Structure formats: C-alpha cells, structure tokens
Amino acid sequence: MGVVVPLESSLDQSGGRASLDRLLELSAPSMRDVNTMIVSRTGSDVTMIPEVAKHLIDSGGKRLRPILTLLCAEMFGYRGDGHVKLAASVEFMHTATLLHDDVVDESDMRRGKPAARMVWGNQASVLVGDFLLGQAFQMMVEVGSLPALDVLSRASAVIAEGEVLQLTTAKNTNTTEDDYLSVIRAKTAALFSAACEVGPIVAGLQETERAALRSYGMNLGLAFQLVDDALDYGGTAKDLGKDIGDDFRERKVTLPVILAYRRSDADEKAFWDRVIVEGTQDHGDLERGIALVRERQGLSDTITRAQHYGAVACDALDGLPASAQKDALLDAVAFCIDRVT
After folding, report:
1. Quick check: is 11 in a domain?
2. N or C terminus: which one in the chain shows less Cβ crowding within 10 Å?
3. In this structure, how many other beta carbons lie within 10 angstroms of the beta carbon of residue 319?
4. What pLDDT shows up at residue 65?
5. Are 317 and 330 in contact (CB under 8 A)?
6. Could you tell me the CA-to-CA distances from 332 to 17, 153, 157 in Å, in that order?
7. Is 5 part of a structural domain of the chain?
8. Is residue 3 part of a domain?
9. Which helix (H) or strand (E) covers residue 132, if one does?
C-alpha cells in the first residue's frame, strides 16, 4: 500500500501558494505543437466552424488535460509525436463537452465571455461540438494505438452518460451526494483519467503504470470539480475563472448545496426549493445562499472531500519512478486544492 503524499509537499520553497509553473515549463515545448495542431484541425471551409471553435478555445483556460497527457507520456521517456495528437484530441473532447454543456445548462456565459450559443445559437454550438469530436477521433486513429483509442472512446461514452445522468439531478434538491459524485465522475473525472492513462499507453508501458495514472487522473478530476463547486460559494472570480454565484444563478445542484439542503430546517429547505427548483430568485438570495452553505458546513465539507480525493491522487503516484514530471503532477494536485484553502 502506498503512502499518502502530503499536499503541502508541492508548495514552493518559500512556503507560498502552490504553482503550476513546473507543469507549464516542462510541457511548453510539446504544448506549442499541440496548439499548432489545434489551430490546424479547427480549419474548415464552413466559416462558422473555426469561428465558434476559436471563440471557446481562445477564451482562456489552462489546458490542463492535454498537458497531463504530455507529461504522463514524457515521464517515461517518450519522444515521439503521438502524445501530441492524443493531447489535442483530449482538448477537442473537452471543448466539445463545454459547447454541449452550455446548451444543456442554458448557460449565458463561459469563462467571462458570452457562451457560443449566445452568439451563434444552440444548433451551431452542438454541431461544432460534434465536428470537434470527429476531429478528435480522427487524430486518435492517426496515432495508431488501439489501446489509446479504446480508452478515449470509452471516456467519450462515459461523458455522454454523465450528461444524460445530470438531467435527472438538474434543479433537483433531493439529489443525493452519491448521485452527484456519479455525475462528476462521468462528466469531469473520466476525461482527466483518460488523458493521463493514454500517456503511458503511447509510451509503451503496461498495466501497472496505466492503472496508477488512471487512478491519479480520476481522483484529480474529482478534486478539481469539487474545488470548483466550493469556489462558487466561497472563492473569487479570479480563482474560479467565472463570476461567483454562476452555479446558483443557473440553479445547479452541486455538492455544497446538497450538503446544506440535507442539513437545513424547513424554512431553509423552502428557500432552496424556491431558488433552485422553482427558479424564483430575488435580490439578496445569492448572499443568503452563500451564508447558508457556510453555516451548514456545505462549503467546508466539500473542501474536505476535495482534499481527500487530492490525497488519493497523490498516493496513486507513489509507486512510479521519481522524475520532474511526477513532481509536476503532484504540483497539479496541490494547486487545485490551494485555490480554495
């Protein structure tokens, strides 16, 4: 059994906040190739396709998922270019999911900008997402690795299942914690897991390394989403990458709300049912929602759960050889958790 790595181990030498600097520095050469490939593969004679894709791809984000693919291959000495195509595929899968999610969730904003559906409409957003998925699978085939294709195609199916499962929990205050974890395990963590697992696959490694990085990615993904959930009720727009309270305004039932609702009295339950189920939100409701989430330990307990999954992610790496890439993966966990602690 591995030893859980303390998250503090990835803080910088001065004791400051965790950073992705090492992750970004190590991946920079290969990420230049990934970015070039992303630009080339969004080209189309249908003008709207590159316009919609560029709108979202250029809107920010750390491109953490493709970076994980690159580092999880390079940590084993891989020097080909297959991981570049797989990393670009992962980013296209993620971007397609965002386009589809904004339609399903009826979101108006994405990363501080109008969502693509608000500019080009729902139909264009869905169809451009489908185009990106098609490009992703084309690149996977070009790599010529059936195991990598299997992992990413399975992840694509799981993500779709998660999107459908989310429909049953949407605006439903009776959603259980287990139900919600099933949704984010499919919608968010599955792609993190696949992004990490295809690294050792393309590098020619066997099941031991694959299982370690599959577990690392899954648990990092869970921690990542739970931190985002917590930040919506207890962070800043800078940390979250969007406006605080967006989940509340969009009536999303996330873990802080699930925990707070479960522990609420009748009056508080009536409040949550009004703002989430009925969708009647008045001035001051966001502030009350934030206060209730804090008072009922919905925020602190969500953070505790995120820390747990982060520790499990670190533990999954324990048996892998020491390397700069491994240290950078530990940094990614510490950075994720440090956003909200």
Report:
1. no
2. N
3. 11
4. 97
5. yes
6. 12, 25, 26
7. no
8. no
9. helix 122-143
- The closest alpha carbon to 197, from 186, 185, 207, belongs to 207
The total number of structural domains that make up the chain: 1
User: Cα separation of 261 and 24, whole Å?
Assistant: 39
- What backbone torsions phi and psi does residue 187 show, to the nearest 5 degrees? -75, -35
**pLDDT for 279-324, tens place per residue?**
999 999 999 999 999 999 999 999 999 999 999 999 999 999 999 9
Domain boundaries, position 123 = 19-338
Q: What is the pLDDT of residues 214-258, one digit of tens each?
A: 999 999 999 999 999 999 998 765 555 556 898 999 899 999 999
Instruction: Report whether 252 contacts 279 (CB < 8 A).
Output: no
CATH number of the domain residue 333 falls in:
1.10.600.10
Report whether 315 contacts 3 (CB < 8 A): yes
What average pLDDT values come out for the chain (341 residues) when binned by 10 residues? 35 61 97 95 93 84 93 96 98 95 86 88 95 97 98 98 93 97 98 98 96 98 97 71 81 97 98 97 97 97 98 97 98 95 80
| Residue 216 counted as domain residue | yes
Q: Which residues contact 142 (CB under 8 A, 6 or more apart)?
A: 85
109 bridge partner residues: 114
Label residue 280 left, alpha or beta by phi (over 0 means left) and psi (-120 to 50 means alpha).
beta
Interhelix angle 64-74/190-202, nearest 10 degrees: 30
The DSSP symbol for 186 reads I
H/E element, 148: helix 146-169
CA–CA distance from 80 to each of 76, 83, 202, 227 (Å)? 12, 7, 9, 34
Distance CA 318, CA 268 (A): 44
Report how far residue 53's alpha carbon sits from residue 335's, in angstroms, rounded to the nearest whole number: 28
